Amino acid sequence: MDKDALLDYEYPDLDPLPSKIETETVPPCDPTADDMLYHICITAISLVVMLILAILARRTKVGNRQKGLPGLLSPVNFLDHTQHKGLAVAVFGVLLCKLWGLLVSPNPLPFTKDSANKQNWVILGVFYYPALYYPLLACGTLHNNVGYVLGSLLSWTHFSVLVWQKIDCPKTPLIHKYYSLFSSLPQIACLAFLSFQYPLFLFKGFKGAERTNTTEDLSSSYYKDYVKKILSEKKPSKVGATSTDKPKLPQRVTDAVKSYIYTPEEAFRFPLKLAISCVVSFITLYQMGLVLISAVVPTMQKARFGVDEDIANVLAGFQIILSPDRKEVVRIVVYYMWCVEVCYISAMTLSALVNLVLLMRSMVLHRSNLKALYRGDVYNVYNCQRSIRASRPALVCWMGYTSFTAAHICIGMMIQTLVFFLCLLIAVFLIIIPILHRQNLILFQILLSMWPFWLMILLAVVLQHITARFCFIKKTAGTHDLNNRGNLFLLTYLLFPVNVLIGVLLAVWRMVITALFNIVHMGRMDISLLNRNVEAFDPAYRCYAHYLKIEVSQSHPVMKAFCGMLLQSLGQENKAAQRSRDAEEGIQLVQQEKKLHKVSSAKRARMHWQLLYTLVNNPSLVGTRKHFQLQTVDNFLNGSLNRSSKQGSKKEAIPQEAEAAASN
């Protein structure tokens, strides 16, 4: 064989040829802290903790003269934006890691090793693990020292036993010898955070047992600060709004980069559900990437190290002869398999990076949508008129939003990795390797053989753009109009067949771009993969839209600021009256102390009139009044009464059907 041909496949990285490796057999490992015994003990401890918390919750309700079912029914207030989000985020992270192990483990539950009925045990485990970690989250609900002590006990128990088990058995035969160890790292991190946070709360003496779960967030200054900020914002000047100056290219690039970077803003806090969803998405990316790497890459490496000279006979059976020298055939095959392995790892890494960038973009868009809905800009978010109120489908979507986010991230990353892997294979084996070695330029030969076709397409496109720029468009008095219409019509007719071929290329390009866009954004629920007119058929975006309805209708900062100020005024009935420091007249409080601070009748009447005006124009109350139930949909804009149609609404006395017939 020619020496130059042999030098074409001289790869220093693979010389000498890789030797065969022996497959390492990892035996099953039983840790000193038996998993079955541990779960039996921790389940009993959790039940005792729940009984103690239920008694404390009942005493708290009796002490505050509250009615309701005795016991601790809610682990956390998901609609409270002011609470500490770390506890809930950490517990959800632990639960996600356990559910992930539930799916990949041959023994879903530690109480049994019956793998024949794995499906039934998985179903039982789906309900067992949330109940097991429920006390770990509920200990922080009562905001008293007893709860923090119990939380510290549970978190330290979970954390110490898990670390103990991983130290005893770092290698397991599951998927990869180190998969179980790396898979438990997020769980260890979340438990370590809980083990630090509960003692920290206990050390600080965080007292809140005297406050009920309903009003504890209303006493926070966050909502008042939010109202003060939106009232102090200045509207943009008309000169800046009507300016036609376009930003320069560096400024546009900077703005585009900033739109993908989430930076905290003053007087705005993320809802708890969104914070949990972001952390859950990140853990899902980690777990999914770990599975894709540990399940595929070791298999590829074993196959690459196991290549011997018999591969030449296998390829010869398919009429593929890479070289007369068997060792050279082995070298070529090993190199190509190494390229496949690199393509797969690159595809998985690219998918993870893309999802991380899109996750940051989603956080920016979440904040933008929430702020728009807070100020009543419904049409800008939904592109149609929607009522922002609680409903059955909205509540169901709100409950499952975090879980749906994790599922979409998982499916999206699998599809992205597969598509990116195929694209990289095509690029490497049809473009990069042929160019580097100047052999097997099949793709370039096909494209070169079609050079008359590509030249015709290029000339046709250039001709149409040049003639449109210099011949068929004229500028007169600052306006553009058509010119040489006869020649324009003639050229349109003559280029019809060529434009059909161009249209075929555009259709293929459109299909590729649409497929890549949908695949890249598969894990995002905050945007629709369909057209705005049919986005209701996108179940993921529909779920996100309903989720925003619940968050805005139940946790509006202005509404909570108003309710908090009312509760504060009621609590100050027996104290000295204090003048409100709010600068805006719309949120001034009526002083309750008439004896110590007498209010004039004119001022009292003005305050009553302002309260009446606010209640009359409340979008949430307009639709429930009998007088406004006869109004048509056109009389409302973003949930409020349209003033332009107010005069006509006063004279309405006929049914809506007759009115529609009259308008036609």
Describe the SSE topology.
Blueprint: H1 3-7, H2 35-63, H3 86-104, H4 118-138, H5 145-168, H6 179-183, H7 185-204, H8 222-232, H9 238-241, H10 249-258, H11 272-305, H12 310-317, H13 326-374, H14 378-382, H15 392-437, H16 442-449, H17 451-470, E1 473-476, E2 479-482, H18 485-494, H19 496-520, H20 539-554, H21 557-571, H22 601-616, H23 619-622, E3 636-637, E4 640-641, H24 646-650, H25 656-663
Antiparallel strand pairs: 1-2, 3-4
Describe the structure.
The protein has 664 residues and is mainly alpha-helical. Helix content is 63%, strand content 2%. The protein contains 25 helices and four strands. It has a two-stranded antiparallel sheet with strand order 1-2. The longest helix has 49 residues, at 326-374.
Structure in a nutshell:
This protein is mainly alpha-helical. The chain is built from 25 helices and four strands.
Report low-confidence residues grouped into runs of 5 or more: 1-12, 209-215, 238-243, 576-597, 645-664
Oligomer: single chain
Helix/strand order: HHHHHHHHHHHHHHHHHEEHHHHHHEEHH
> What structural class is derived from the secondary structure elements?
mainly alpha
Shape: flat
Using DSSP, what is the number of strands?
4
The value of Rg in angstroms is 34 Å
Q: How helix-rich are the residues, as a percent range?
A: 55-70%
- Largest beta-sheet details: 2 strands, antiparallel
What is the mean pLDDT? 77
Note the gap between the termini.
88 Å
Number of helices: 25
User: Beta-sheet strand percentage?
Assistant: under 5%
Strands side by side in the biggest sheet: 1-2
